[in-house]
Amino acid sequence: MTTVKAINFVLPETEVYLAGSSIDGQLVLNVRSTLVDPVVKVELVGRGYLSWNEEGNPQLDYNKSIACTNKAVYISKAKKFHIADGCLDSGIHTFDFHFSFPPELPSTFTSKVGCIFYFLQGICCSHGTILAKEKRYLLMQGISDDHMGHVKAVAPLVVEARNDVVYFCCFTQGSVILRISLEKNVFCPGETIVFMTDITNRTFYYIRKVVFAVHCVVLYRGFSSSGEQYTLEDRNEVMRLESWPGTAPFDAMRIINALVLPKPLPVTSLAKESKIMTFKYELVGTSNLPCVTSNIVVPIIIAA
């Protein structure tokens, strides 16, 4: 039977913590019998990991994939509590703690290649033996370093894409034009992206569905076991919206759509940054016809 009945955290009702803010909480121990010379502490940890397999040289007779990995420690703090007289009597004991988050912390992030995560860990041990342990994960929202650069980028943005269509045994030609208009191209996590889409259909087909999505394009930097550096660009769909405009042949239509960004969300990385992962974002519109797919890509910036 363990000496510690239970160990728990009491934390504020905060869903997402902002980099540069702080956290106040309590570690609560329920002790069954007296503990002599116990060690009670709380740790705050933030780490990043990535791992993927890079294909080897296909021109070689012996082709072997290369494992690429990397890691980073973003924060590691600990609070060790003073125990009066070196003893903890049976009963409930409460320990208050306070931690400050550095402003340069990146956001919580998870993908099939890498992750960034944060957690609090409470530990009670005696004479080198861990008697109880509790871990609580935290959601972190990073903030942007380049505030002035992002402010300058807040401006109306219009992007247009045209796709030509050839059908009826190559004797007839048409086109589909997509135009997306934004009042600004800088957004905060949790904000709503409102955009206007103009669809010009110069074909004999109906445009029944247009898909809008926000893509997060992540550039990973890893190393092989021999120390060689590799990079991998991966695209993750943050959210999507399906619109059914039903644009008739040789007709035009304007629709207004909105996408709500989640929170937390990694902010757009600066070019000067060189970390294990960097992030950029695109708003992508796609219309499908029986003979062609029209795409339009609008670069956007996520800042907090």
From TrEMBL:
Q: Report domain Arrestin C-terminal-like positions.
A: 172-303
What SUPFAM superfamilies does the record tag this protein with?
A: E set domains (SSF81296)
Picking any one GO biological process from the record gives: protein transport
For this record, the Gene Ontology CC terms, alphabetical, are: endosome; plasma membrane
Pfam families the record matches: Arrestin_C (PF02752), Arrestin_N (PF00339)
Give the family, as the similarity comment puts it. Belongs to the arrestin family.
Q: What is this protein called?
A: ARRD5 protein
**Provenance organism:** Penelope pileata
- Gene designation per UniProt: Arrdc5
